[in-house]
Description:
571 residues; elongated; binds adenosine-5'-triphosphate; 3 domains; Rossmann fold; alpha/beta; 63% helix; ABC transporter transmembrane region fold; 18 helices; six-stranded mixed β-sheet
Amino acid sequence: MKSPSKLLTAQILPALILNLLSGVLITVSYLLQALLFTQLIIGLNASTSNTLMTLIVMLTGNALLRAVLMGFRAMQTEQLAANVRTRLRLQLFRPLLTPGFDIMQHHSAAKLQATLVEGVEVMEGFYSRYLPALLLALLSGAVTVITLASFDLLSGAILLLFLVTCPVMDHLFMRQQRRHIVGVFAAMQHFAEDLMDALRGMLTLKACNAVPRFRAKIADHAASLRRESMTTLRVTMMRGGITRFVSLFGTSGLLIINAWRTMQGTVDPALLLMTLFITWEAFRPILQLETVFHTLWAAQEMRPAMQELAASTATLHDPDFPHPMPAGNTLHLEAITYRWPGQHQPLFNNLTLTIAENRHTAFIGPSGSGKSTLFQLITRFIAPQSGAIFLGDEPISELSIAAFRRRISWVSQQVFLIDGTLAENLRLGRPDVTEAEIWQALQQAQLAEWVQSLPQRLNTLVGENGGLLSGGQRQRLAIARALLKQSPILILDEITSNLDVVNEAAIQRVISSLSGHCTLISIAHRLNTIAQADHIVVLQDGDIIEQGSPARLRFENGYYASLLQSQETIL
Ligand SMILES: Nc1ncnc2c1ncn2[C@@H]1O[C@H](COP(=O)(O)OP(=O)(O)OP(=O)(O)O)[C@@H](O)[C@H]1O
């Protein structure tokens, strides 16, 4: 398989060649201008006015043509940049968007954001500005040296010597300085990560009185970023200075040599003029390259994170030939073994369990007993190391991941809401739902009366992640959204644990109304929400230690009975 950067280079190669070609034509136009100027100045006294006029017309035409070429190249560079951006984003987002890919297992949110936003910007600069500028500097330099050498071999050789001195001096300087400038990107990342953490957790930081400590930490990172940036700026400016010095020294050195040779009468005065006009042209692309050199450093720093992300693959894959979706909605786990990466012992060892269709199955158990892991297995975010999970009579590993997930709706304790209106949030799972269906779902979720009372009704904005709603409203909105998806299996993951008694009672009514209409699977720490469940499964350290109807378990003297008793005592 080709590496992402090779793939990208191959994809943009035609545009890159066109960009380079227009750059070389601009150089050729400058060289032609130098020749025409030389002819014009030499011929000022000797040539006829017709010849002079022809030269002036040619000079003007050449300048106009160059202006068109420059305009075209500027436009084409922008197109190349847009092309690079689009292709890079496609490469980076493709693994993220596959159903079997769990990105958060691999990347922190801040690093991911830096890679996707700054990384793409940096690579765009590298491919659309630095790479063409580097190739152009090489090609233009060669064309200019060859042109001058065709008039005078010695002048061509001296120019080549100065041109080669530029990268050699640069390399020697950077060997000394490189270690001073590697810290800027790491400093930028630390600063961004801390800032993002602080913004996300501002309320918690305030509540814990931790703002001054966090502010000091961010200030430290900001100071280190400023130090690193200043060092990088100093090195960059010194680099620029060295390149400029070599180019000026080269231009004036060659001029002095050829002026001396002209005075000695060993070369034609026209060569002196040619040297004057052409030599600077050889250094022009090198000086242009200098202005975009920082993108090379940035790209070198960013490349590992981008390659890691682009090369990430889904942890779960669709089967090559997915089986048709089965009719039934019973879930059966057969001899499941699952061990989390990095853990020595499997959490589940030979776990067998049936979740009956159109029944309410509730999971309880102490913290860390494996309830959430079990849900991740059922929803195919992770896969067991051995054993199989069946939907009806089909192993879910033989079904298309997307088709299987359409069968399931999931409401979790941490509801995710987009920063839009109530209607936009409700339509997330099925954009084509009618308004009548929305109101019906709101009715079922015990939310219709509240939405009716709002001035903007369904067009009410919910704020960033539902910040303008109460916890109970957010939770019921998520239930209404799940109901609109009309999936036959509904998973409720500790949805009442943060709610007050009134909201919990409202959600209990919602759950009761769903009973018998879908396969309902819930996790709960408080027993009120699952009192009406058809079947209760008690997990402990990954094992099922009890299961049965609530009526039976309450007399079994086990975990459920003791939990029931302790919660009744508290009430
Ligand atoms: N992503 C993960 N990587 C490694 N280990 C994990 C991961 N998620 C959970 N575990 C481990 O698996 C075990 C079961 O965790 P799980 O979250 O499934 O329990 P739980 O019963 O849902 O707990 P709680 O009621 O506190 O939410 C724990 O020991 C936990 O440390």
